[in-house]
Amino acid sequence: MKGNFNLPFKSRNIHSPVFKTISIVLSVAIIICIGGLAIAKGRSSSTVEVLSKIGSRGDEVRRIQQKLKTLGFFEGAVDGIYGVKTQSAVKRFQKSVGITADGIAGSKTLLYLGLGDSTSSGSGGYSSSDVYLLAKVIAAEARGESYTGQVAVGAVVLNRVDSASFPDTVSGVVYQKGAFSAVTDSNWSVSPTADSRKAAQDAINGWDPTGGALYYYNPAKTSNQWIRTRPVITTIGKHVFCR
Q1: Residues 6+ apart with CB under 8 A from 58
Q2: Residue 28 has pLDDT above 70, yes or no
Q3: What is the phi/psi pair of residue 169, to 5°?
Q4: Are 174 and 180 in contact (CB under 8 A)?
Q5: What is the 3-state secondary structure of the chain?
Q6: The pLDDT of residue 186
């Protein structure tokens, strides 16, 4: 049986009810597809990391300004407006810790500032960014030391946080001028090791091999005479821990 299934277009009645119905259905389908793509795009863009940069405003910018002010990098008003002064302060901080100095407060910069994920970790209620910074200073300051020696360095940082004589945050203690030499040398650019992260968490969980030390030094390397006058508590590896 033969039939012509390829009728010329001119033979089709575009004014027929069936043709009009098909056209309407196709139009509605296209509109729905376009709308769905727009919604999907909107949802996708909502998951993109929001960065604080020139022109940004709000509470996050205030927190960044306040932290930079506390650390001595920002002298302007804490007004929640990310202007040139805030950008310059962010760049100075980024340079000081060895990360890309682009003046944008992205996730890595916030992590280094101690303003990253605020999810509590460990019994002390420290944030994940606190744990990261603590692990970073342990990796830089206690490289080559035993695991106990690594925990001991972390404990000193936390003891300072708890002491009225020092800043009351991990980032404040770590970045306090002259506090830790490793912060300004090449070792600071190295990511924390698995051991240093575990040591940081153990210190946060309460393990203090130093017995409450606020200072430590390597007798073979330090030329600071004042630190040698501090009352010694214990020696772990190459470090002397004292009050």
Answers
A1: 80
A2: no
A3: -135, 160
A4: yes
A5: CCCCCCCCHHHCCCCCHHHHHHHHHHHHHHHHHHHHHHHHHHHHHHCCCCCECCCCECHHHHHHHHHHHHCCCCCCCCCCECCHHHHHHHHHHHHHHCCCCCCCECHHHHHHHCCCCCCEECCCCEEHHHHHHHHHHHHHHCCCCCHHHHHHHHHHHHHHHHCCCCCCCHHHHHCCCCCCHHHHCHHHHCCCCHHHHHHHHHHHCCCCCCCCCCEEECCCCCCCCCHHHCCEEEEECCEEEEC
A6: 77
Least confident span in 21-30, 144-153, 188-197, 222-231: 21-30
Residue 182 is predicted with a pLDDT of 85
Which tens digits make up the pLDDT trace of 59-117? 889 989 998 988 889 998 999 999 999 999 999 988 887 789 999 999 888 878 877 65
Neighbour tally for 79: CB within 10 Å? 12
C-beta separation of 150 from 199 below 8 A: yes
Specify the pTM.
0.61
Residues 236 and 207 sit within 8 Å (Cβ to Cβ): no
